[in-house]
Predict the structure.
Amino acid sequence: MEIVEGIGIGLAVLVAAFLILFLRRALVTRTGGTIRVHVRVSTLLDGRGWSPGLGRFAGDELRWYRMFSFALRPKRVLSRETLVVRRRRLPEGRERLSLPADWVILSCTSQQTPIEIAMERSAVTGFLSWLEAAPPGAASPRLAHQDWPAA
């Protein structure tokens, strides 16, 4: 009888974990303005270290939530005021195994810290529009290279 109780408790914990994950995702995406974003969390191995997640635009911030996490708070918060896009490129080498083929990688700096983010091509357009949004007549210094190759 103890084995059956142990299996039952294990299944209950597993179901509760899945419910928490789905509830968290519903809370993050409930207000819209979300995109699928991968962030490179480790550069130890070439082409690896990408972590999937959801990016949510909230005013002047892009809040990134890890896909497989129980945390209700974002793992990273990128401020529009300190984020600068240095270059963009397509996935290369081993990155093609962990990122969809039609995604674009943006090499950025945020408060002088390098960060790489990847997203769908269609999301890049919206992201860059959000990033360079400024009052009429003001120039945006956030895009370092205006002569990017078409990705």
Notes: Residues 45 and 74 are 25 Å apart (CA to CA). Strands lie at 34-40, 50-58, 61-66, 76-79, 83-89, 103-110, 113-120.
